[in-house]
Amino acid sequence: GIIAALKKNKWQDNLISTIVMILISVPSFVTISLLLSWLSYQTGWLPSSWPVDGSSLGAYAKALVIPVMSLCFGTVAGFTRYTRAELTEVISSEFLLLARTKGLTRRQSIVRHALRNSMVPIVPMIIGEFVGILSGSMILEQLYSIPGIGSLFILCINSRDYNVLLVDM
Predict the structure, then answer these.
(1) Could you tell me which residue, 24 or 140, shows the higher pLDDT?
(2) How many Å is the maximal CA-CA distance in the chain?
(3) Contact call for residues 153 and 139 (beta carbons, < 8 A)
(4) Phi, psi (rounded to 5 degrees) for 12
(5) How far apart (Å, rounded) are the C-alpha atoms in residues 134 and 169?
(6) What is the pLDDT of residue 18?
(7) Distance (Å, rounded) from C-alpha 88 to C-alpha 108?
(8) Which residues are CB-neighbours of 68 under 8 A, at least 6 positions away?
(9) What is the DSSP string of 8-31?
(10) For 157, how many CA atoms within 13 A lie in the half-sphere containing its CB?
(11) 124 to each of 71, 76, 110, 136, how far by Cα in Å?
(12) pTM to 2 decimals?
C-alpha cells in the first residue's frame, strides 16, 4: 500500500492495485483449494490435511502454512487498499507540504508525518478484520480437517443444539 501510494498512477501502482483487487475478490475457501492443489498435491511441500494428535511440532507448523495463507490474503489485500487510499490523501495534505517547506526531505516527511497520520483509521480496522477471519475460518476448518470452533458450530447446527451455539458466540 505504501509503495502504491508513493508511486501513484505509475505502473507499480496499477500492478499492486490489480493484484489487490484479485485477492480481495477471491474467497478464502477458493484460495485454500488452490493452495492445497498447488502446495500439497502438485509439489508435495506441505501436508494436505491437519496432522493427527501426537504429531511433532514441525508437522503442526507445516500444516498451519496453507490455512494461514488462505485466511490472510484477502485481509492483507484489504489493508493494502486502505493504506494506499489513506496515505495518498495524507501526502496531498497541506501540513505535509508545510513539513517539506520547513526543510524535511520527502522520505523524512513521509516516515515522520504521513505514515503516522495515515495509520490512525487503519489500526482500529484490525479488530473488525479479526472477527472476519474468525467467521471465515469455519469453512476452512472443514476443508482442511482442523478440529476447532468451526467444527463445533457445524456440529451444533446439525444436531440443533442451539444452547451450545449461543454460549460459544
Answers:
(1) 24
(2) 68
(3) no
(4) -65, -45
(5) 11
(6) 94
(7) 16
(8) none
(9) TTSHHHHHHHHHHHHHHHS-HHHH
(10) 8
(11) 19, 15, 21, 19
(12) 0.74
